[in-house]
From TrEMBL:
It is an enzyme of class 2 (transferase). This is 3-oxo-tetronate kinase. It holds the Pfam family NBD_C. Keywords: ATP-binding, Carbohydrate metabolism, Kinase, Nucleotide-binding, Transferase. The keyword Kinase applies. Residues 9-235 form the Four-carbon acid sugar kinase N-terminal domain. Catalyzes the ATP-dependent phosphorylation of 3-oxo-tetronate to 3-oxo-tetronate 4-phosphate. The lineage of its organism: Bacteria, Pseudomonadati, Pseudomonadota, Gammaproteobacteria, Oceanospirillales. One of its GO terms (molecular function) is kinase activity. Belongs to the four-carbon acid sugar kinase family.
């Protein structure tokens, strides 16, 4: 058991930003939540924590690796006494035909000695709904939503029962909207009937929050549930109804933030480019552009960026260091250097800048870009994130203890298309 643990929910997320998205919803539902990066190798202080989300990188890796990592996370979460387990994947059910959702769910069920779980990917407020087992993104079926062209996990089939049937040898069943509309008792009865037929995996319809509430109520006693972060927001109310969870007045409350404020951006997504432009319009002298072609020539541009940031920070002025660039520039750099090398140069430069500047007193750090965030967090040696209040949908402030200094580091990690246009300034306004 971890120190002082009373862990109600233990979650295993198949990627980093997905973990944060779930953690954010758990806080909104009223749980004090800690995200851990990978399976902890050391004792983690879980005092005053109700939910832990373990962030893995198991979405697109080989099946064996995804299963092994998920089982290790399960083992650790059980040691912390988690009452219910949650396997979190993307609301678009991102997976290959071989997995990893089916094999991981099967392995977790087996390890728990459980016979059935539900699959609830829907996230209605983000337009992800499921009807008759078919996944919709807005008004399009999944395979017609753009996801059919995803570079890593192209989703060419919206029929989730069929998708899952390719990933597991066990029977797949459905709880449809008609059953949900009759409430939690009818849903539980349907799940039992399916269990009697040996159905291990039950795809669940959900069109709105109310359906998710019914599902959360019907499945609160299951050892394992699986799905997207929408279900995560519905579960805490059920834990309170069970008496497992107290009413917590400010589940996202963090220690007061302190130290210099820095924005690092390695995301070239459309939303991020608009956020960079908005910041530069407000602070024309506040940004320094990094360019992989210049970075490839040695450390000079990185030194300049460091000097620029130090000067701005000493004046307590907002500062943005960014490699974000439009498609044309990105293509040019990728053509000259190769895609992986261009990306690695940027990630390495931003990570090193983060390490230097945090060491020199930056205490509030915003990072834009999923991969970029992963690189920065790993360079800073961060292993746990306490989840705070939401800045914009899906992106919370977080805090992490820093060795050798008293105040924690406040950190916001924004993947590509998240956040409003003023995110790079708004985030610091809402941070207390
Ligand atoms: P997002 O969340 O928007 O997808 P990521 O950080 O995950 O952002 O991915 C962006 C990738 O693009 C990173 O690997 C980053 O290093 C790389 N990158 C950033 N700027 C440039 C640039 N100017 N040229 C080429 N690659 C870049």
């Amino acid at each position: 058991m971890g120190m002082g643990a009373n862990i109600v929910l233990g979650a295993i997320a198949d990627d980093f930003t997905g973990a944060t998205d779930l953690a954010n919803n758990l806080v909104r539902g009223g749980m004090r939540c800690l995200q851990v990066i990978g399976v902890p190798q050391q004792e983690v202080d879980l005092t005053g924590i109700d939910a832990v989300v373990v962030a893995l990188k198991s979405r697109s890796c080989p099946v064996d690796e995804a299963v092994a990592d998920s089982l290790a996370a399960l083992e650790w979460l059980r040691q912390q006494g988690a009452r219910q387990l949650f396997f979190k994947y993307c609301s678009t059910f991102d997976s290959t035909d071989q997995g990893n959702i089916g094999p991981v769910a099967d392995a977790l069920l087996e390890a728990l000695g459980a016979h059935q779980t539900v699959m609830v990917p829907a996230f209605p407020i983000n337009g992800r709904t499921v009807y008759q087992g078919h996944l919709f993104v807005g008004d399009r079926l999944l395979n017609d939503s753009g996801m059919q062209h995803h570079p890593l996990n192209p989703m060419q089939d919206a029929d989730l029962m069929r998708v899952l049937a390719r990933q597991t040898p066990h029977p797949v069943g459905l709880v449809n909207r008609t059953v949900l509309a009759q409430g939690a008792d009818a849903t539980r009865a349907q799940l039992s009937a399916l269990a009697e037929q040996g159905v291990r995996h039950v795809i669940c319809d959900s069109l709105d929050e109310q359906d998710l509430d019914v599902l959360a109520e019907a499945t609160v006693a299951m050892p394992l549930v699986t799905g997207g972060s929408g279900l995560g927001q519905a579960l805490p109310a059920q834990y309170r109804a069970q008496g497992w969870l107290d009413t917590i007045s400010e589940p996202g409350r963090l220690s007061p933030a302190s130290g210099g404020a820095l924005v690092l951006s390695g995301s070239c997504s459309r939303a991020t480019l608009a956020q960079v432009a908005d910041f530069l319009a407000k602070y024309p002298d506040g940004g320094f552009a990094l360019d992989p072609l210049a970075l490839a020539e040695g450390g000079k541009q990185q030194e300049q960026a460091l000097a620029f940031a130090r000067k701005r920070l000493s004046q307590e002025a907002p500062v943005l260091l960014y490699a974000s660039a439009d498609t044309e520039k990105v293509n040019a750099a990728q053509k000259a250097l190769g895609v992986a090398h261009a990306g690695a140069l940027v990630e390495e430069a931003l990570s090193q800048l983060a390490v230097n500047l945090v060491d020199e007193g930056v205490g509030r750090l915003l990072v834009a870009g999923g991969e970029t965030s992963g690189a920065v967090v790993s360079a800073l040696g961060i292993t746990t994130l306490r989840i705070g209040e939401q800045i914009d949908p899906g992106v919370p402030w977080t805090q992490t203890p820093m060795a050798g200094r008293e105040a924690p580091l406040s950190l916001a990690l924004k993947s590509g298309n998240f956040g409003g246009v003023d995110f790079f300034t708004w985030a610091f306004e809402v941070l207390v």
